[in-house]
Every structure is written in structure tokens, then in C-alpha cells.
Prior knowledge:
- The chain has 87 residues and is mainly alpha-helical.
- It is built from four helices and two strands, in the order αβαααβ.
- It has a two-stranded antiparallel sheet.
Amino acid sequence: xxxxxxxxxxxxxxxxxxxxxxxxxxxQETLSSSQYSSPAEYEEVTGKKITxxxxxxxxxxLVERGELPPVEERLPKNPVVIEPWEE
Length: 87
């Protein structure tokens, strides 16, 4: 009886590990985005020009109340640019 429980526990553990690794590999295959070290690099590679930065909707209210500086003041001099997977 004890050997049977040990076998079941080991098989369950092996199955769980296999399921986790397969889920990770599927996620890596379906996700893709582009990352650039600065707006200048983004413009050079894509030919598109970044003319302005947008405020996150969740932070807009804090900016309006003066509790948070505008997005232009919060960004570093050369922010990393990441193209999103979706809009």
C-alpha cells in the first residue's frame, strides 16, 4: 500500500512538472514584442517617429489633482520603447 502511494505521488509530481513546462513553452512561442533602448533607436529601426507620450488612464486623475507630475516630467531622458502585443 505504501509503495502504491509513493508511486502515485511521484507520478503526480512528474505530470505536474511536465504540464508546467509545456505551458511555459507555449507562452513563449505565442508572445512576441519588440524592445528598443531609446526612442531614437525605435525611430531608426521602424522609421516611425514618436511625437508624444500618453498618460496611463489610471494615473490621469492623480495628475489632474497635482499629486503626480505630468508624464513628460516622470520619464527618463531616454526611455525604453516597447511595442505592445495588442493596442
